[in-house]
Design a protein that fits this description.
Elements: H1 22-41, H2 52-63, H3 67-72, H4 74-89, H5 91-97, H6 102-119, H7 126-143, E1 146-147, E2 150-151, H8 158-174, H9 177-204, H10 216-233
Antiparallel strand pairs: 1-2
Helix pairs in contact: 1-9, 1-10, 4-7, 6-7, 6-10, 8-9
Length: about 240
């Protein structure tokens, strides 16, 4: 009599976890483009997905002798730092619960924050929204690090532009086919980021306060895929770490 086998045991081992799939990263890049466009268009004219601009602005403001405004930038910078801290500290206790991976919980948390932001009146101080986006962007950036073996940044495009240049050089000099794959991947990431920013900018014309809710759509698609993997496909792989960790 043939023994009953768990559905997961009957499947071959996957090379990459669900949280490492390229489609997941494309959706994350789209949502990041939307977040960046939202804070720039509606919440203070700043880009909160990274911190280089804040550090430059702090240097310029302090250089002009405006110490009060200059020191303000320590708040978003600290929020970004705190997001990285939590994204390092939380995965282990969450893994012990063996319910969902940290990656899945993070996406759910991001969606809750963005949902709340969409309810905040436009008269709400922009700093509140900016710091919130700083926080979740940092956690996303530190959590999702490799797409099918390719190092990634999911909240800004600087690294993707750099990697495109590197890939083109390798194609010309060494004719490496892997460089072609990397080139197309990084181009796709930038296109998704750009597309997300364009879509949200258009929607801001009609629904400026609630426009950020559009970013919930790609995040919801990510959450469904990761949640299904946690419950069904990768149920017994909670100890397996995503690439780059």
């Amino acid at each position: 009599m043939k023994s009953i086998i768990n559905r997961e045991d009957d499947q071959p081992a996957q090379r990459f976890l669900a949280c490492e799939r390229r489609t997941i990263y494309l959706l994350l890049m789209m949502s990041a483009g939307m977040m960046g466009a939202y804070t720039f268009n509606v919440r203070g004219g700043v880009f909160c997905n990274a911190q280089t601009a804040n550090i430059v602005l702090m240097a310029v403001t302090l250089g002009d002798g405006n110490f009060k405004d200059g020191l303000y930038y320590l708040i978003p910078i600290s929020a970004y730092c705190l997001g990285a801290f939590f994204s390092e500290a939380f995965p282990s206790p969450i893994k012990k619960l063996a319910l969902f991976r940290w990656d899945t919980c993070l996406i759910a948390f991001e969606m809750i924050i963005l949902l709340i932001i969409g309810f905040l009146p436009l008269r709400t101080p922009n700093h509140i929204v900016q710091v919130a986006v700083n926080f979740i962007a940092s956690m996303q950036y530190n959590t999702f690090r490799q797409a099918e073996g390719i190092p990634m940044a999911t909240t800004f495009c600087t690294n993707h532009v750099r990697q495109i240049g590197i890939a083109i050089a390798k194609l010309i000099r060494k004719k490496e086919m892997e460089a072609w794959t990397r080139l197309l991947t990084h181009i796709q990431m930038i296109v998704c980021f750009l597309g997300g920013g364009i879509i949200l900018t258009v929607i801001c014309r009609w629904f400026p306060k609630e426009a950020i809710w559009i970013a919930l759509l790609p995040l919801a698609a990510v959450l469904l895929q990761l949640g299904y993997a946690d419950i069904v496909v990768e149920r017994r792989q909670f100890d397996r770490k995503p690439g780059g960790h």
